[in-house]
Amino acid sequence: MQSRWVDRDANAAIDRFAAQGISPELALRVYTTRLLGGDAALVLHGGGNTSVKTKMRDLAGDEVEVLCIKGTGGNMGTIEPSGMAAVRLAPLQRLRTLDDLSDDDMARGQRGHLLDPMAPSPSLELLLHAFMPHKFVDHTHANAVLSLIDQPDGAKLCEEVYDGRVGLVPYVRPGFGLAKAAATTFDKNPKVEGLILDKHGIFSFGTSAKESYERMIELVSRAEERLKQNRKAVFKSAQLPQQVPPNDDIAPFIRGACSLKDAGGEGAHRRMILEYRSNDAILNFINGAELKRYGASVVITPDFTIRTKSLPLIAPTPQAGKLDDFKRAAHDAVTAYIDNYKQYFARHNARSGGGKKMVDPLPRIVLVPGLGLYGLGRSAKDASIAADLAEAAVATITDAEAIGRFQSLTEADMFDTEYWPIEQAKLGKEKALPLAGQVAVNSRSTNTVQGDIQNASISTYMAVNGDGYFVVEKPTGFSGSTPAFGCKNGFLTAGALVSGSSILNDSPILYLRHISSPSASGNASWRRTTTAVAATTFAVGSSLVAGSLVTRNVWANASGAPLLISYASTS
Ligand SMILES: [Zn+2]
C-alpha cells in the first residue's frame, strides 16, 4: 500500500479551505481523511474515523481547545470540514477518571460539549481519540490488519509483525469501555505509533496530518507483507454440479424466499432488493468445501453487524435443469435461517437483560455456491452496501485462512454491537416507501401494439425505486393513434382483471401508466402521471394486450380506484 500524499494537493486543500475560514490543520485533516476514505481496503461505508486536536473560538469569541472528529456514520472519502464535529476537549478528557459511563450518558456527553449544536454527532470512538495525547489520530478497519487479528492467535501475529511499534488492545465493544482499555494499553508504552484493536481495526498517531496518515499506510503495509509469506492455497473446492444456472434464474428464487408476509393485506409481502456479485475471488470462497466453517460469519469488524447481520445465509447449490428443487431448498434454508435468528435474538436478549426489539430476521448476505453472492437490503443502496461489505469479508477471510484460521467475534459480542442503540441509530429512521422492494407491475412476455414493454426494466425500476406504481387504464378514445385518458374514471379497479372478466375478454388493449407518488388524495394527483419514468426503456402509455396480463395480488388504493398488479411469479 502506497502513501497517496502529494504536497501540491495538500497545499491546494489548505488554500481552498482557507477561503471558507478553515485553518490549515483542519484542512490537512480533511485532506488525509479523504485519502484514507478513498481506499476500500482501508474503510468502507462510514467505517473508520479521524481527528485533530486544535483551538477554535466559541460564540463569545474565547479560544477553546477542541477535538475535531468525523461525524458518526459519515463517509471519509467525501468528507467536508462541516462533516467534522468540534467537541470541547477538556470535559471529554475528564471522563477518563470514571469507572463506568452508560451509553445514554456517553451520547449526552458527545453532543453536550459540541461547539456548534448543529454539528453532526461525533463518531462513537470520540473518547478513544480524546484520551490519546496526539494531535492527529487516524483509525481504519484495514482488511490486511483484520486478516491478522481475526485469528485465534492474532496477538502473537501482531507482536511478530509490529515488534512493539503498536499497542495491542483486547476486544471490547466500541464506546467508553474500549476508550478506557485503549488508554490503559497506551500508558504502558507511550512510545507506540499506533494501537491495534483486537477483532476491530487499527489506530495511528502523529504530530502532523501527514505523519499520522503515513504511519497508517506503513503499518497496514506491514500487515500486507506478512500476508504474502507462508501462504497455503485456499480453498479446497467442494464437489459442484457441472452446470449451475445463471443469476437471472436464481435471483428471483432468493428474492422470493427472503420475503416476509406483511400485515398489509392478502398477498402483500415485505421484500428485499438484491445486488449480485461474482468474480474469481468470490467463487473461490463460496465454492470451498469448508465454506460452512470459515463463511459462518462475515463480521470482520464489529460495525458490520448492523449491515450484514451476524450470519450470512449459505444457500443450497443450484443445479441447471432443477430449478424447482432449488426453489424448495432455498425456502427451507431461509425458514431455518429465520428460526435460528429468532433463537439467537431470544438467547442474547435474555442475557442482556431483555427489552430489545428484534429487527426483521431476514439475511442481508446470501452465499450461493457455484454462482456468487448477494447483498440484500430494503433499498438498492442498502443492498449495494451489504454486497460491498461481503466482498471485503471475502478478501479478509481468504487472507486470514491463507496464513492461519479465521476467527470472528463471539456471538455475544456480535449481538451486543448489532443491538447497540447507538449503532442502530446509524441506519436512520427513514420510513420505507410504500412499495419499496415490490415489483408492482410485471407484464411478463407481453406483446404490445406500440412496441415491447420491457418487463425486466419495469420490474427493476419498480423494485429498486418502489416510489410509485403503474396503473392499468382503458383509454376513453383516440386522437389518431394516440390514446386519450380520463384519469381516475378510466382506471381499472381492483378485481377488474380477474380471469373471465369482461374487460379481460372484450377489451383488446389496455394502457400502462406510471403514477410517480402514491396518494390517496384524489384525482388531482393522479392527473400528473404523464412523465416517463425510464424513457429509454419504457414509454409511458405503451399498450398491453389484455389477455397476456398475469393478475395476482390486485390492489386498490384507499378510495378503491387505481388498479395495481403486483406479480412475483417465483415467490
Ligand atoms: Zn472502528
Q: Mind describing the biggest β-sheet? A: 7 strands, mixed
Low-confidence stretches: 442-456, 497-508, 516-571
Strand percent estimate: 15-25%
Distance between the termini: 45 Å
Number of helices: 20
**What compounds are bound to the protein?**
zinc ion
| CATH T-level topology of the largest domain | L-fuculose-1-phosphate Aldolase
CATH H-level superfamily of the largest domain: Class II aldolase/adducin N-terminal domain
What is the correct CATH architecture of the largest domain? 3-Layer(aba) Sandwich
Structural class: alpha+beta
Percent in helix:
25-40%
Summed up, the domain count is 3
Short note summarizing the structure:
By secondary structure, this protein is α+β, with helices and mostly antiparallel strands. The chain has 20 helices and 20 strands.
What does this entry look like structurally?
It is a single chain. The chain has 571 residues and is an alpha+beta fold. The protein has three domains: 221 residues, Class II aldolase/adducin N-terminal domain (L-fuculose-1-phosphate Aldolase, 3-Layer(aba) Sandwich); 181 residues, 3-Layer(aba) Sandwich (L-fuculose-1-phosphate Aldolase), CATH 3.40.225; 111 residues, no CATH class. The chain is built from 20 helices and 20 strands. It has a seven-stranded mixed sheet with strand order 3-2-1-4-7-6-5, sandwiched between helices. A four-stranded mixed sheet has the order 10-13-12-11. Helix 14 links the parallel strand 11 and strand 12. The longest helix has 29 residues. The protein starts with 6 loop residues before the first helix and ends in a 6-residue tail after the last strand. Bound molecules: zinc ion. The site of zinc ion has 5 residues, from loops.
